[in-house]
Amino acid sequence: MDMGAMTIRITNTGEERCAPQHQYGPAVRGCYLIHYAVSGRGQYIARGHTWEVHACQGFLIAPGDVTTYRADAFDPWHYLWIGYAGSGSAELTRMAGLDPARPVFDAPDVDSMAELMRAADQDVRALRLGELGALGCLMRIMARIGQFNAPRQTDPRRGVLMEYFGKATWFIEGNLSQGVTVDEVAAYVGLCRSQLYRVFMAADGASPQQWIQRARLRRARELLLSQPALTLSEVAASAGYSGAPQMADAFRRFEHTSPREFRRASHNE
């Protein structure tokens, strides 16, 4: 892709559900590489620092850096990645608000990020014009990342808002199986319900309750796909539903199918 005289090319893409304590590195890459956590948590180590990275976050690997990353022993990552290089890659990285010195970024819209990264992976594998489609996905991925991470000097309140939003979504993801409520989230971040509502609407366009519903459904989908030995009741409990019937209602409403059919169809693909 040309950006004036600059070029960008996709180097690699992929997806992995990590085994507990899965580790890559120490290693050095020759390209920029973005990993994005759909679920789970782990550690990223670079430049003498260690960062904790959980669901709804990602990390940037810069060319030439010696890096190591390791999935958690009890809640390992499920992540996707996309790599890129070329004379325009450093500028693209900067425009998205990414900095190798502060490599961890927030991107709370998991569904959109995962969809774009999977689309890029599919396009890379396409026989004709695949890289063109993948580059389009990369631009949209970077725009998504920049939406939450690029500097906004004209509105310093935005940074405070995103701190509240990031803290709230981290708490939700970590407490789904306990049936987390909006009141509990508000108490954790130190806001009243109406203030929390305004934070979520400004940051994501969804209310806190809607975000919790989406997070539960996302967790249930992940478990149905990755843990075939779990019963529907066990999946429901892990995702924070009061029972399998409540989970089934959510699937019928948002997925237009039942959890059982969702699992069966996915495994038959």
TrEMBL record:
<keyword id="KW-0805">Transcription regulation</keyword>
<feature type="domain" description="HTH araC/xylS-type">
    <location>
        <begin position="166"/>
        <end position="265"/>
    </location>
</feature>
<dbReference type="Pfam" id="PF02311">
    <property type="entry name" value="AraC_binding"/>
</dbReference>
<dbReference type="GO" id="GO:0003700">
    <property type="term" value="F:DNA-binding transcription factor activity"/>
</dbReference>
<dbReference type="InterPro" id="IPR018060">
    <property type="entry name" value="HTH_AraC"/>
</dbReference>
<dbReference type="InterPro" id="IPR009057">
    <property type="entry name" value="Homeodomain-like_sf"/>
</dbReference>
<dbReference type="InterPro" id="IPR050204">
    <property type="entry name" value="AraC_XylS_family_regulators"/>
</dbReference>
<keyword id="KW-0238">DNA-binding</keyword>
<dbReference type="Pfam" id="PF12833">
    <property type="entry name" value="HTH_18"/>
</dbReference>
<protein>
    <submittedName>
        <fullName>AraC family transcriptional regulator</fullName>
    </submittedName>
</protein>
<dbReference type="InterPro" id="IPR037923">
    <property type="entry name" value="HTH-like"/>
</dbReference>
<dbReference type="InterPro" id="IPR003313">
    <property type="entry name" value="AraC-bd"/>
</dbReference>
<dbReference type="GO" id="GO:0043565">
    <property type="term" value="F:sequence-specific DNA binding"/>
</dbReference>
<keyword id="KW-0804">Transcription</keyword>
